[in-house]
Amino acid sequence: MKTILQKTIQLLFIAVVLASCSKPGDEPTPTEIQTDVYAIGHKNIAGRGNTGKIWKNGTLLYTLPEAEVFGIYVSGEDVYVAGTVYNDWKVAMLWKNGTPQALTDGTNRSEAGSVYVAGTDVYVAGYEFKSSGGSVAMVWKNGVAQELTDGSARSSYAGSVYVSGSDIYVAGYVLYDSNRACTVWKNGIAHKLTDGSTIAIPQSMYVSGTDVYVAGFESYNSTSAVAKLWKNGVAQDLTNSTFFSQANSVFVSGGDVYVAGREYNNMVSSAKVWKNGEVLYDLTAPGEEIRPTGMFVVQTEK
Fold first, then answer.
1. Are 100 and 90 in contact (CB under 8 A)?
2. Across residues 161-183, what is the average pLDDT?
3. Which domains does the chain have, with CATH numbers?
4. Cα torsion for 116, 230, 266, 270, to the nearest 10°?
5. When comparing pLDDT for 197 and 242, which is higher?
6. pTM
7. Whole-number pLDDT of residue 25
8. Cβ–Cβ < 8 Å for 220, 198
9. Complete DSSP assignment for 128-193
10. CA distance 74 to 96
């Protein structure tokens, strides 16, 4: 018993000595996280059409002349943007670090609304008009097109694409009669978020674990629309605007939900980025009207 007690006292003494010899700077330094928020949008310049804009943390990075931009994805040092340019009509485009790539031959009107990068594969969602007159929801994978509807509806549109593991999610709408049914396709199978009795337009989608977020807006009459966020099919109003508001992009990072959109107040449009319901950035400069359309959040260790 005496030997055990002596060894215990010796171990305690050594521990105290070692603790007293450690320096204050030896404690592990907490990891700092750098959060970069990319946002895109476009504005109309009189006589020159639309100009696409790309911001990082509220500061303008660069512009894309004569372009409308709708989707952004950041992979390492590469920035991918999906949108359109005008020839005789709209042509779906993909930009990588500002360099354009046409997704169609320009024969029919088309538009690209979203881009997602998974490994070496680049997915783009949008639509293309057919000779029958209606538009068809499309997904391009590495430039190769796939139609999401069989042509039985009057028209359809894909506004957002997201890849999670082996699952490919696409958000858009299908026009059956006079109204649009907000729709999510999972691996090509359609699931309706609304019944088509109102005009509902999904603009963006994000998948976090088992949760599927869709941002957009729903209109109940010809004079107003309400920005919406659907989480697993359950709708939430994002504003109480009596005029017009819309959510154009949603991104989830570290438990925080970011939304980019715009809201009219007394007929003045304001472009904003919200974080968990609070305004993070106001992207509107005095005297101009900008439509914010996409967002991407990158978090890295400093």
1. no
2. 86
3. 31-301 (2.120.10.80)
4. -30
5. 197
6. 0.78
7. 54
8. yes
9. EE-TTS-EEEEEEETTEEEESS-S-SSEEEEEEEEEETTEEEEEEEEESSSSEEEEEEETTEEEES
10. 10
